[in-house]
From TrEMBL:
<keyword id="KW-0812">Transmembrane</keyword>
<feature type="domain" description="Major facilitator superfamily (MFS) profile">
    <location>
        <begin position="15"/>
        <end position="399"/>
    </location>
</feature>
<dbReference type="GO" id="GO:0022857">
    <property type="term" value="F:transmembrane transporter activity"/>
</dbReference>
<feature type="transmembrane region" description="Helical">
    <location>
        <begin position="17"/>
        <end position="38"/>
    </location>
</feature>
<feature type="transmembrane region" description="Helical">
    <location>
        <begin position="44"/>
        <end position="69"/>
    </location>
</feature>
<feature type="transmembrane region" description="Helical">
    <location>
        <begin position="138"/>
        <end position="160"/>
    </location>
</feature>
<feature type="transmembrane region" description="Helical">
    <location>
        <begin position="166"/>
        <end position="187"/>
    </location>
</feature>
<dbReference type="InterPro" id="IPR011701">
    <property type="entry name" value="MFS"/>
</dbReference>
<feature type="transmembrane region" description="Helical">
    <location>
        <begin position="105"/>
        <end position="126"/>
    </location>
</feature>
<dbReference type="InterPro" id="IPR020846">
    <property type="entry name" value="MFS_dom"/>
</dbReference>
<keyword id="KW-0472">Membrane</keyword>
<feature type="transmembrane region" description="Helical">
    <location>
        <begin position="344"/>
        <end position="363"/>
    </location>
</feature>
<feature type="transmembrane region" description="Helical">
    <location>
        <begin position="220"/>
        <end position="244"/>
    </location>
</feature>
<dbReference type="Pfam" id="PF07690">
    <property type="entry name" value="MFS_1"/>
</dbReference>
<feature type="transmembrane region" description="Helical">
    <location>
        <begin position="369"/>
        <end position="391"/>
    </location>
</feature>
<dbReference type="InterPro" id="IPR036259">
    <property type="entry name" value="MFS_trans_sf"/>
</dbReference>
<keyword id="KW-1133">Transmembrane helix</keyword>
Length: 399
């Protein structure tokens, strides 16, 4: 039976891919640091734990920005908000390029995180413009854009830094943001006409309304915690790998870290199938199955950690199933009423980045204390927690 709100027009495939590309460019800005973190630390003369503040505060600022700014998507045009936030990202990147000190670079990265909101408006924007039975597939398309952006960011940053200079990485990122900002008005349409009975809430009411909405939908809270752990594994492991592989014990260049990142390309092929799987068997069941596979991959990090070729195995496993866990989590809020989706996604993503920001710092700090053993052990503990929470949610969904 068709959904009562199933009204056209729908996004064209071309616009779906354009939105995915725009999201990829904007998300990529947080990931250039991954392969080059040791080079940036050396240039500024700071420790592994201190440089870990860059990705950590970036993610925490993003969580704050999501809390304060993303709810506006339920009141104002996503198109207008996306353009404004993209401009904020561009200015922040310029600050990072030209800052002569670590403090300035850290401030620029933190402000950048605060304005990296637009990619997280896109799923709610698209969900209102696709047929319900295609929600998983379209969410997967947007996720692929994110994966490609992260992939190009990490591979490109490693190569550019190895043969040129890490400042050039952020100069190119700023140029890409200018192009993306100019393209957004052409890709996104303005806010649709709302019904005459809709009550427009004030900004304060929109923000405060997040808390009772989250309490009314506890499955979204748990999904946010699961994704915080899932994304935390991703960030902490890649930051640890960059420090581990470029350490004197391993002796590789930053370009090798970038090459390893290229194995994430497998996710581009697999992610749409994982979205379709979640559509077919339900997000809770799909997430539990994927979390088990992820745990196997994470468990291999420690025993395979000192052999570059063996490391490819857990990296491929983690990059394959990690996005699927996120897709399943997002579906727990995107399948709910359209007028509350953006705010529920706000809660989901806020939890995700708060956890990921903490994991970024703890990951580099654990490497500072116990090397690769500490970093891999932290990832395994988080993976076990994901399996337990996913199993609990699957049981509740069945009941």
């Amino acid at each position: 039976m068709p959904d009562a709100n199933d009204k056209g027009p729908y996004l064209t495939r071309a616009k779906e891919f354009a939105l995915a590309a725009a999201g990829g460019v904007m998300v990529a800005n947080a990931y250039y640091i991954h392969p080059i973190i040791a080079e940036v630390a050396g240039d500024f003369g700071v420790s592994a734990a201190t440089i870990g503040l860059v990705p950590a505060l970036n993610q925490i600022a993003l969580a704050l920005g999501i809390f304060l700014l993303l709810p506006l998507g339920d009141r104002f045009s996503n198109r207008q908000l996306s353009i404004i936030f993209a401009c904020g990202q561009t200015v922040s990147l310029a600050l990072m390029v030209f800052s002569p000190s670590f403090a300035g670079f850290l401030i620029g990265s933190t402000i950048l995180g605060f304005f990296t909101i637009a990619p997280y408006l896109l799923p709610a924007y698209a969900s209102k413009r696709v047929r319900p039975q295609r929600l998983g597939s379209v969410t997967a398309t947007l996720t692929i854009g994110t994966i490609v952006g992260i992939l190009i960011a990490r591979v490109g940053a490693g190569l550019i830094t190895q043969y040129y200079d890490w400042h050039l990485v952020y100069a190119i990122a700023a140029a890409l943001m200018v192009l993306t900002t100019l393209a957004l008005p052409l890709v996104m349409e303005g806010r649709r006409q709302t019904s005459a009975t809709e009550v427009r809430q004030s900004y304060g009411a929109l923000v405060i309304s997040l808390f009772p909405l989250m309490r009314a939908h506890p499955q979204v809270i748990v999904s946010g915690v699961i994704q915080a752990l899932n994304f935390g594994i991703f960030l902490s492991v890649w930051l640890g790998l960059a420090l581990h592989l470029t350490s004197p014990a391993m002796g590789y260049g930053v370009d090798v870290v970038g090459y390893l990142s290229a194995f994430a390309v497998v996710a581009i092929v697999v992610t749409p199938k994982l979205g379709a799987l979640a559509d077919r068997i339900g997000p809770e069941k799909a997430r539990f199955r994927l979390s088990l596979v992820q745990m196997v991959g994470v468990a291999l990090l420690l025993p395979f950690g000192h052999d570059l070729w063996l490391l490819i195995i857990p990296i491929v496993i983690m990059n394959t199933v990690g996005p699927g866990i996120d897709i399943a989590g997002r579906m727990t809020s995107l399948s709910l009423a359209p007028d509350i989706r953006t705010r529920l996604m706000t809660g989901y993503i806020m939890l995700m980045f708060l956890g990921a920001g903490l994991a970024s710092w703890v990951g580099t700090a654990s490497f500072d204390i116990a090397g690769w053993t500490g970093n891999a052990g932290l990832a395994l503990a988080m993976s076990v927690a994901i399996v337990g929470l996913s199993y609990t949610q699957m049981k509740k969904a069945r009941g």
